[in-house]
Design goal:
Rossmann fold, 259 residues, globular, 9 helices, 7 strands, two-stranded antiparallel sheet
């Protein structure tokens, strides 16, 4: 999978968990030390809240430490990009995409557990809205090949969510997917920059590493079914049609009724 370089001197949003992969993405964007990520004007670190994460201080604390270390190393400190750390709640989307209706949805997708796919889809939808509203034309995610066993870090998920973003004028890319294909590369990068290279920077989610045997077939089918509703939600939110947006995901309703 190949990606074109991010345009220079534009705002860039990063889906930021505080873990080593999203931290690597932030460090490279901040320093402009990656051919696909020239130094942006401002970096928006979007930390998503799904309602199931513990240790809320970890991601922000790691960002503060990283920002201070990276700024101290910058050859031109007055030209480093500004950093905005933003917490965005996407719990209602997460509920509507899976938790409220999983009993109805699982049989449609071979009984597979797609809870993490739904959560990441909600994150991307919320990120698209933020990017459009804040004029950040590019959104980056630190997905990596070494974690391809996660259903939300598969080719089908990346390709389809990138296509969804494109509908709203936002370019979503995963520039470190091939680079960080083994854990030692990410550790080397972070240690070389003087940054924390082990875990402990992200919230601990209840659903993290939940067992699933979902394949790209089920993942793709689920995304195809959800995209029309998610697209409508994004459109309504951007147009200020708050009632229509809310009714895209009424609690406890079968989403298949809305097709």
């Amino acid at each position: 999978m190949t990606w074109m370089p991010v345009p220079e001197c534009q705002d860039v949003a990063i889906l930021y968990s505080g873990g080593t992969d999203s931290l690597s993405l932030y460090a490279l964007a901040f320093s402009g030390r990656h051919p696909l990520i020239p130094r942006p004007r401002r970096i928006h670190l979007l930390h998503m809240l799904n309602g199931m994460g513990r240790f809320p201080a970890f991601p922000k604390n790691r960002m503060r430490v990283a920002k201070r270390i990276l700024a101290a190393q910058a050859p031109e400190p007055d030209k480093v990009p500004k950093t905005s750390y933003v917490e965005l709640d996407m719990g209602r989307l997460f509920q509507g995409l899976w938790l409220d209706v999983y009993e109805d949805l699982m049989p449609k997708y071979g009984g597979k557990n797609l809870v993490c796919v739904a959560c990441k889809l909600a994150m991307h939808a919320r990120g698209i809205i933020y990017c459009v509203e804040h004029l950040a034309p590019t959104m980056l995610a630190g997905y990596t090949k070494k974690q391809g066993y996660y259903p939300e870090q598969t080719y089908v998920f990346m390709e389809k969510t990138a296509h969804l973003s494109k509908r709203f004028g936002i370019r979503t890319a995963f520039p470190l997917y091939e680079d960080l294909d083994i854990e030692s590369v990410g550790r080397h990068l972070l240690e070389d920059l003087g940054l924390p290279s082990t875990g402990g920077g992200e919230r601990k989610c209840l659903f993290c590493q939940t067992k699933t045997s979902a394949t790209e077939k089920e993942i793709g089918a689920y995304l195809d079914d959800m995209f029309p509703m998610v697209s409508s939600y994004i459109e309504y939110r951007l147009e200020g049609r708050i009632k229509d947006a809310a009714m895209c995901f009424p609690p406890g309703r079968d989403v298949s009724e809305k097709k």
